[in-house]
């Protein structure tokens, strides 16, 4: 349906967060609506493109970048962030360390990207009721303290994937319009 209009915006979005939090699964769910329970560490940096139409009928072409096997913090380079308009910062609600590492990720995002880059926090694997190690309240508190929008998501069950991406688009469109 949105192939008939040329995109008004082109945004580069990058996904970051610890290994195995579900970044690749999030991207696959968003772009091809598929999910695989098998883990395969991807090699190199990869991206996928998807065109979305916002509630205000603006057509946005998203280029979404996935880190692959370079999640170890120190191996991330500024080139991955270059030209980015938005960041999906992801942790796994069943792995507390991935939540505790968020402030390190934020520091890196802030040092490598523009001041006004929009960041959305995603707590993935919300389908896993058992083995949950991070509560919604504390995730919301962290999001609030750092001025981030928070989405509790499941790439497996397709929960809040589109909402998180739409929130990034909307925030970016507002920013672009303010700059005009
Ligand atoms: P990445 O290293 O951050 O790219 O993580 P992957 O996307 O490769 O996912 C790591 C593992 O977590 C894989 O076995 C996925 O199937 C699984 N996984 C990803 N997203 C979800 C989710 O929403 N729920 C559950 N239960 N498992 C997930
Ligand atoms: Mg991956």
UniProtKB/TrEMBL annotation:
Keyword Transcription regulation: no
Domain of life: Eukaryota
UniProt keyword Magnesium present: no
This protein's UniProt keywords: GTP-binding, Nucleotide-binding
Protein name as it appears in the record: Ras-related protein Rab-35
UniProt source species: Aplysia californica (California sea hare)
This protein's encoding gene: LOC101850084
Shown residues within the full chain: 27 to 206 of 278
């Amino acid at each position: 349906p949105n192939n008939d209009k040329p995109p008004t915006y082109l945004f580069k979005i990058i996904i970051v967060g610890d290994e195995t939090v579900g970044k690749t699964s999030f991207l696959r769910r968003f772009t091809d609506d598929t999910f695989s329970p098998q883990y395969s560490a991807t090699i190199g940096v990869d991206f996928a493109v998807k065109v979305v139409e916002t509630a205000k009928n603006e057509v946005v072409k998203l280029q979404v970048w996935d880190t692959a096997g370079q999640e170890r913090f120190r191996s991330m380079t500024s080139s991955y962030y270059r030209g980015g308009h938005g960041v999906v910062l992801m942790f796994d609600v069943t792995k507390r360390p991935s939540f505790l590492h968020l402030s390190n990720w934020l520091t890196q995002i802030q040092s490598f990207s523009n001041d006004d880059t929009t960041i959305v926090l995603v707590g993935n694997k919300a389908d896993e009721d058992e083995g949950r190690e991070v509560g919604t309240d504390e995730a919301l508190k962290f999001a609030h303290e750092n001025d981030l929008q928070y989405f509790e998501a499941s790439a497996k069950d397709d929960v809040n994937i589109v909402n998180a991406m739409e929130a990034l688009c909307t925030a970016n469109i507002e920013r672009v319009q303010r700059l005009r």
